[in-house]
Amino acid sequence: MNESWKEMTREQLYQLIENCSKNWLAMDGVWFQSIEEQYGMDEAMKHDEAIWRRFTRIEARRAKDFLKLPDRAGLDGLKRALNLRMYANMCNDSAEMKDGALIYKIRDCRVQRARTSKGMPMHPCKSVGEIEYSGFAEIIDDRISCECLSCYPDVTDPDYSCCWRFTMEESHE
């Protein structure tokens, strides 16, 4: 495809977004596995956590700007912003309001599926997820807190790869 993205059809743009997302995820996995192979899982996880502390905030700011969300966009703003994450179009996920909280679930994680298919151990992603989702939510609205309900290695719901609960903290202003 030699066309500029400005000349692409809607369908081609969708394919481009999917390809870019897959490329991003592949790069994320390649650098991680490079460190994991040479220095071990603990060292790879330290770097993964450091990267997500920074990247998730960049991604959240860009989603917030794109959606023109106010500074304190609440759980509704977070729900909208989660749909714009690079990973969102590649996984079977859902975000639903329940009892005043936003419950975000990923049914099928491409990372865990890829590692399993290669005979690799599962990625112990809970610590990274806590950094990733709490940091993302904080940029959308600093009153939102994040709690892990289920994520490897602490899986409490085997029907999902991971589950997260976002709540609004009471404002003391």
Describe the model:
- It is a single chain.
- The chain has one domain: Muramoyl-pentapeptide Carboxypeptidase, domain 2.
- The model has no long low-confidence stretch (mean pLDDT 92).
- The protein is α+β, with helices and mostly antiparallel strands and 173 residues long.
- The protein has a 4-stranded antiparallel beta sheet.
- It is globular, with a radius of gyration of 17 Å.
- Helix content is 51%, strand content 17%.
Topology summary:
Elements: H1 10-39, H2 41-67, H3 74-82, E1 92-98, E2 101-108, H4 110-117, H5 126-140, E3 144-151, E4 162-168
Antiparallel strand pairs: 1-2, 2-4, 3-4
Mean pLDDT: 92
The appropriate CATH architecture is: 2-Layer Sandwich
List the quaternary state of the chains.
Answer: single chain
How is the biggest beta sheet arranged?
4 strands, antiparallel
C-alpha geometry: globular
Give, in order, the helices and strands: HHHEEHHEE
Strand content: 15-25%
How are the strands of the largest sheet arranged?
Answer: 1-2-4-3
Q: From the helix content, strand content and strand pairing, which structural class follows?
A: alpha+beta
How many strands appear in the DSSP assignment? 4
Alpha carbon gap, first and last residue:
54 Å
Question: What does the radius of gyration come to?
Answer: 17 Å
Number of domains: 1
* CATH classification, class level: Alpha Beta
The CATH topology comes to Muramoyl-pentapeptide Carboxypeptidase, domain 2
